[in-house]
Automatic annotation (TrEMBL):
This is Amidohydrolase. One of its GO terms (molecular function) is hydrolase activity, acting on carbon-nitrogen (but not peptide) bonds. Residues 57-385 form the Amidohydrolase-related domain.
Amino acid sequence: MTGILLRNGLLCDPRRRTRERGHLLLDGGLVVGRLSDEEALDAEKRGCHVIDAGPFWVTAGLIDVHTHLGLWEEGAPEEEGSGNEMTSPVTPHLRVVDAVNPADRAFSEARRAGVTTVQILPGSANVIGGQGAVVRTEGTVVDAMIRRAPSAMKAAFGENPKNVYRAQKAAPSTRMAVAATLREALLKARRYGESLQAKGKKGREGELDVKSEALLSVLSGEVPLRVHAHRADDMMTALRIADEFGLSITLEHGTEGLRIAPILAGRAIPVAYGPALSSRPKLELAELEIGDAARLVAAGVRLSLTTDHPVIPIRFILAQASEAVRAGLDADDALAALTINAAEHLGLAETLGSLDEGKRADLVLWTGDPLHYRTVAAATFIDGKVVHKDRGVQL
């Protein structure tokens, strides 16, 4: 029998709020399921590789839903980053997969921190920044790391786009113009799509509008618009435009989300909260408060936590979650925000985010409670393969 048996680990399910001793069988890169003592003994007799997981807590692999890994690389000056194309405020045709460097050491640091999946997004200089991708954190060629691409169309509201283009004496330089720029691009893409439909197969024989073409999947709802927004009024503008065009939307950062928490909860808008360990270097971050993570969850908001790497280095993903717990967030809610909630935020909960049967065998063996400052990832698995092992750990 092939496969890996994790024997007697402390299996953690933050959504169900359970921590139970049990045996977990992995095979073919997937979680086969939990086994009884008798089934585990039988699997061992049939030649399954057995790992004594007794000393370890076992969780699903961590997921960061909003990062810039491989775009702003470790050790490189910020100006050498490849995340912002600041020559036009509308660049939906750009794809992060064409810029991500898998050799960025942040990927190995992510694995060492128990992070198995990340979403990589363009920066927030442009109103429409381009197409994101969800990737596994192990690999040497980005094409082999992709789990979904495009996973998102990045949009940005607030100070970043307006300040970038104000400095160039160009539009947009106000919040009104940011919203108008997004509307204009969506309207143009809608007309482009209607024209293609009217012309049938001959529609694409003419000159291709690559920007409008890239936005068609956003207008259809196939690709979500992931909106960088800190201020509550910017979030409401994003929701207003999403309603106008029937878009699928998530809010990224959500610093002032508490101001509109009933609306976010009532509409089940996913929010990627953070980075919340950073300073407050601009006006729209004046109300940044890590304790708001607990308050948003209490208000019923669908919350994930993000480092926004490299703003908070990916290796500190659990340090941020631990600080949120110290500020009032329930420990299970904190782990859920980095596993099953994050998978739902990305639309990948059928394959990621828990130890349930049939999901990818992305998981972590921890030396203790993952939220304790002394705990480390003893081993990290991606698709059932060990991609990180701490010194001295025997598997």
